[in-house]
Specification:
There is one protein chain. With about 400 residues, this protein is of the alpha/beta class. The protein folds into 2 domains: about 260 residues, Rossmann fold; about 110 residues, Rossmann fold, CATH 3.40.50.1100. The protein contains 17 helices and 11 strands. α1 crosses α10, α4 packs parallel to α6 and α9 packs across α10. The longest helix is centred in the middle third of the chain and has 20 residues. The protein is globular. It starts with a strand and ends with a helix. The model has no long low-confidence stretch (mean pLDDT about 95).
Length: about 400
């Protein structure tokens, strides 16, 4: 499915609050917080000239979030950042003085954090980030996981000391349960999706993701002409598209949102003109994108700055995982999880079916984001036929830059 953005708000300025969330000052704050993380390294931006040539593009770059902050996903940027901000705000209130990120290890701040419990629902990656953030600041975490979350992903979250709570149903069911239980117990919900009356914290999570596009623009010689980014509830797509619109203005790239055909809630919002709950059918292999209702905050941004919405099928996502693991020419091998290469899958489909509509040609400079590495290594090996370690070892043997 493919749909140009026909919303009346398309290419209109962002709301003031949204511009503040995904704008330059917000990205500055995220950068300052990242500088205080002990394991922060800027993830690479890979050039794939062989694949670009095959597709008939000028250049193709992949921003690789597969090793971000030791969590293997772009979500490492959002949940933990929001937890840090919330702890500092509560500590400032209780201590009666401003405290900043450099104060997070002070005993009086950790004493405040120890009284706080943060909660969220997750498909896997967001929960890891929230749990890691809570552990780093000395807070407690309660993470709600639905029936489709693998045992491997549950274990990866639990290792940060979080209380794990299983929920029947899908991701949206776990979101509702997390909100209900947190309200009863006085916990703070740190969700990456929003709902009426609950927008600021998901905005902080989105703000964390602006680091991706800020870094990418600093790593590339010319700004991209086209960007393809995948969406679950829409947070990363909104953060990237919104920041590009603010920084580049009228020179911003053509931005396409890509989703699984089986869980296309942002596409559904684009078709209806507002967020709707789409029907839950057969599960998608793109597990981190299996969401059935777009975040209103993310949609508010995407309605203005996304140019097109499209879906890809199960086999296309798996094919991209395998292609990135076994590249042509001197392209580096990239470990992309089931949801990681979906933006690239969208680009490949677009080059076959929608080149004219998107203005894609031999001069196009395209940016995509590998949003996750092998966050479930066993599942990755099943789908790709190689372990993540063997894929990366191929770079060493070939001399490609990993």
């Amino acid at each position: 499915m493919f749909l140009p953005n026909r919303h009346a708000l398309h290419r209109q300025p962002l709301d003031e609050a949204d511009a503040e969330t995904v704008g330059i000052a917000g990205a500055d704050t995220v950068e300052r917080f990242l500088a205080c993380r002990n394991n922060h390294l800027t993830p690479p931006l890979h050039a794939l000239p062989a694949l670009a040539g095959e597709l008939g593009l000028g250049t193709l770059h992949v921003k690789d979030e597969g090793f971000r902050l030791g969590l293997g996903s772009f979500k490492a940027l959002g949940g933990a950042y929001a937890v840090f901000r919330l702890v500092l705000e509560e500590a400032s209130k209780r201590l009666g003085r401003p405290v900043d990120v450099g104060d997070l290890d002070r005993p009086e701040v950790r004493s405040v954090a120890a009284t706080m419990t943060v909660a969220c629902a997750t498909d896997g990656n967001h929960g890891r980030s929230v749990a890691q953030g809570a552990e780093l600041v000395g807070a407690k975490a309660a993470i709600f996981v639905h029936a489709g979350v693998s045992d491997g992903r549950v274990a990866a979250i639990a290792c940060y000391g979080a209380e794990m709570i299983r929920v029947d149903g899908n991701y949206d069911d776990s979101v509702r349960q997390a909100a209900r239980v947190a309200a009863e117990k006085g916990w703070t919900v740190v969700s990456d999706t929003s709902w009426p009356g609950y927008e600021r914290i998901p905005g902080l999570v989105m703000q964390g993701y602006t680091a991706i596009v800020r870094e990418a623009l600093g790593q590339i010689s010319e700004p991209p002409t086209h960007v393809f980014v995948q969406a679950g509830v829409g947070g990363i797509a909104a953060a990237v598209a919104g920041h590009l619109a603010i920084v580049l203005g009228e020179a911003r790239p053509v931005f396409t949102v890509v989703e699984p055909a089986r869980a296309a809630c942002v596409f559904g919002a684009a078709k209806a003109g507002h967020p709707i709950k789409i029907t839950h059918g057969e599960a998608t292999v793109m597990a981190m994108l299996e969401c059935y209702e777009a975040s209103p905050v993310a949609w508010r941004v995407l309605a203005r700055v996304a140019d097109a919405f499209m879906t890809v099928d199960e086999d296309e996502a798996i094919a991209v995982m395998r292609r990135l693991a076994r590249p042509a020419g001197n392209d580096p091998a990239i470990v992309a999880g089931e949801s990681g290469g979906v933006g690239l899958a969208g680009l490949i489909r677009a080059m076959a079916d929608h080149k004219a509509e998107l203005g894609l040609d031999a001069t196009s400079r395209v940016l995509v984001v590998n949003t996750e590495g092998a966050t479930d290594p066993h599942r990755y090996a099943e789908l790709v036929g190689m372990s993540p370690a063997d894929v990366l070892a191929g770079n060493v043997l070939s001399g490609a830059t990993p």
